[in-house]
């Protein structure tokens, strides 16, 4: 049955999850069986799908994946776990005793041979712009150097050493994740207290 317009607007609707799980079982049961028969339950397992195949099977779902990849890739992971449970139960009924339940299955989309192989969705790395934000893109290139993995912080908690006031500071990503601490404790501003020389804060404690 074709999904309704409102259901397509809601990525987390049960019909969407069911449609994605059904697609995985119809076209990728071999991968699901291989994952179920793998012995290590702690590994993260990829499940590769073809965008062209999804486009032929369920065009509205493929369009939703293209236009809302953040939501639908996450939903596809949930659908993969649901499909895994179904395949797992089927294998147990058939007498397979070596099957192991998995908790980490991630869908990976291959766009080769699909309409996504066009300049608008397959830009050169140096051509990626703000207009590309929020849609499914494919980037290809050669890694010529790799360094240590660095985590980008979204926020930091600090505490004023004088008054023990706690406050958030947001690193500036454009300035290499640098932190700019205020000259005065934010509590002075919140309490509408004018800052004099006695109120100047000279040190803060970073709270992990």
TrEMBL record:
It is found in: Nucleus. Belongs to the MCM family. This is DNA helicase. It comes from Quercus suber. It is an enzyme of class 3 (hydrolase). GO terms for cellular component: MCM complex; nucleus. It catalyses: ATP + H2O = ADP + phosphate + H(+). One of its GO terms (molecular function) is ATP binding. The lineage of its organism: Eukaryota, Viridiplantae, Streptophyta, Embryophyta, Tracheophyta. GO terms for biological process: double-strand break repair via homologous recombination. The keyword Nucleotide-binding applies. Residues 22-110 form the MCM9 N-terminal domain.
């Amino acid at each position: 049955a074709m999904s309704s317009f409102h259901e397509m607007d809601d990525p987390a609707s049960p019909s969407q999850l069911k449609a994605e799980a059904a697609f995985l079982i119809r076209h990728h049961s071999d991968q699901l069986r291989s994952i179920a028969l793998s012995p290590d339950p702690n590994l993260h397992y990829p499940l590769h799908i073809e965008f062209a195949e999804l486009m032929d099977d369920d065009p509205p779902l493929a369009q939703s994946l293209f236009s809302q990849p953040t939501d639908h890739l996450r939903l596809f992971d949930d659908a993969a776990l649901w499909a895994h449970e179904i395949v797992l139960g089927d294998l147990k009924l058939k007498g397979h005793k070596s099957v192991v339940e998995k908790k980490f299955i991630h869908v990976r989309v291959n766009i080769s041979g699909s309409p996504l192989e066009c300049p608008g969705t397959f830009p050169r790395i140096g051509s990626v712009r703000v207009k590309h934000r929020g849609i499914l893109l494919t980037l290809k290139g050669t890694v010529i150097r790799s360094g240590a993995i660095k985590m980008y912080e979204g926020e930091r908690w600090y505490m004023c050493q004088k008054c023990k006031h706690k406050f958030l500071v947001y690193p500036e990503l454009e300035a290499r994740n640098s932190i700019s601490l205020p000259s005065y404790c934010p509590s002075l501003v919140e309490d509408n207290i004018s800052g004099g020389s006695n109120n100047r804060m000279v040190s803060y404690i970073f709270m992990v």
